[in-house]
Amino acid sequence: MTSTSSALMSMLTKELGEPDEASNTVPYWLPTSLPNVNLIVSDKMDLGFPGGRQVGISGPSSCGKTALATELMIQAQRKGGLPHFNDHEHSWLQAHAISQGLDVDNFYYRQPLSAEDGFQILYDVQQLVRCQQIGLDVAKLGSPKDPGRSVRLIKAVQKSGKFATLPPLVQVIDSVASLIPEEQDIAYGAQNMKTKNMAVGAFLSVELKRMARDCAHLASTLVLLNQLRKNPAIMFGDNNSETGGEALTYYASTRIRLRRIGHIYADWSEKSSEVIGDIVEMHVLKNKVARPLRRTKYVFNNRGPVGLDCAATMIVLGKEAGVLGPKEGKTVDFGGRSKWSINDLLAQCRIEPKLVAALIATVMPAVAPGLLREDAPPAIPEPEAA
Fold first, then answer.
1. How many other CB atoms sit within 10 Å of the CB of residue 123?
2. Contact 346, 311 (CB under 8 A)
3. d(CA 345, CA 208)
4. What contacts 259, CB < 8 A, 6 or more positions away?
5. 184-215: string of b/e by CB count within 10 Å (b at 16+)?
6. Are 227 and 262 in contact (CB under 8 A)?
7. What's the predicted TM-score (pTM) here?
8. Which residues lie below 8 Å from residue 335, measured CB to CB, with a gap of 6+?
9. Which of 11, 29, 41, 333 has the highest local Cβ count within 10 Å?
């Protein structure tokens, strides 16, 4: 640093105070149970999704968006944190979340009637939870409708020195496409689909910038689920678009696109028995904590235990990579055993967790280099329409 710039820095520090510390530190991580998913999102098999950010998850109907969000809420609970779910679609099934492992006794669920109501609930939950955790009387922040309330809380958190120890707070919006701004409700009959979508986009462009600030300084994570729409004006390439305008593409730190690309059958023989799970492809469209444009796949088990299935995912990836015997068939070569029935192996994995760790140790070194490529192509073609 030259003497001139050093003098300028001294002057600025004296007049304006010490500069803020520029840091990309993530207050906490939300690891999924799948090392391949964690790897493409964070470059580490044990980290996963970043906390204190906005995460966008989009995809067509029934591709597992809510299931992945539920996985992140479960991980928050395991770290001593609180999940909060705003159900704008009014369709959430508690039984599915319980079967996946969510503790609904430590879970805040709401059904907002408007977009404004939903975001006010998000802010109120953030402020009430963080005030209690730093020992601050929430009344000192002012009225809940006061826009300066968040800034006063941020300064209080900074002054408390407790930011680094705040447990996860994961808030989910399901979904962006179902947000109804109050003005849209009032003039519903006078609007068409284009103006309705513009109303949501205008609303989000204001609220998401504020939420980006609050997430970063209050260590809260906002997960926004979104639907896809076909754009008939696009004749070539990807004609899928997300609803709600461009705000989410800018303010989300991580954006994920999901699609169901296959099924898991009861006897692991294609189309010969009942469907017990889905193969879901994940594409990282944007990422500020690792490289974007990566793909992987995982198995979501629909029949006990319900949820993201690590052992089945490793088997799918391992067979494709050729490290578990032939790519086709209902058996694997693993652990010194030849032609081990996949169903028998999965049953044994539920009894012996060490087997799952052994599967990870066998499969991940073979598939990790391909997962870390940018825009790795999907390994399974589009399925036929059901």
1. 22
2. yes
3. 46
4. 59, 60, 63, 280, 281, 283
5. beeeeeeeeeeebbebbbebbbebbeebbebb
6. no
7. 0.90
8. 355, 358
9. 41
Q: Is the dihedral of CA 270, 275, 277, 278 positive or negative?
A: positive
Question: Cβ(158)–Cβ(208) under 8 Å?
Answer: no
* Separation CA 80–CA 49 (nearest Å): 16
For 25-309, which CATH superfamily applies?
P-loop containing nucleotide triphosphate hydrolases (3.40.50.300)
Radius of gyration of the chain (CA): 23
d(CA 133, CA 129): 6
Which CA distances in Å does 341 have to 292, 300, 318? 36, 20, 14
**The pair of three-digit structure tokens given for residue 273, joined into one six-digit string:** 């028995």
Residue 381: what pLDDT? 43
**Four-point Cα dihedral 192, 112, 86, 187, nearest 10:** 10
Instruction: Locate the domains of the chain by residue range.
Output: 25-309
Separation between Cα atoms, residue 192 and residue 176, nearest integer Å: 18
Counted residue by residue, the chain has a size of 386
**CB contact at 8 A, 342 and 259:** no
Chain centroid to CA 341: 33
Enclosing H/E stretch for 117: helix 115-134
pLDDT at site 178:
93
Residue with tokens 């779910």: 85
In the numeric block, the tokens 């407790």 are attached to 162
DSSP H helices in 135-192: 149-160, 182-186
Q: What is the mean pLDDT of each run of 10 residues along the chain (386 residues)?
A: 84 90 82 97 96 97 94 97 97 93 96 96 97 96 88 95 96 95 69 65 94 96 92 73 88 96 88 87 96 96 89 97 92 93 95 96 96 64 42
pLDDT of residue 22: 66
> In this predicted structure, what is the pLDDT of residue 384?
42
On the question of a cis peptide bond just before residue 175, with omega within 30 degrees of 0, the verdict is: yes
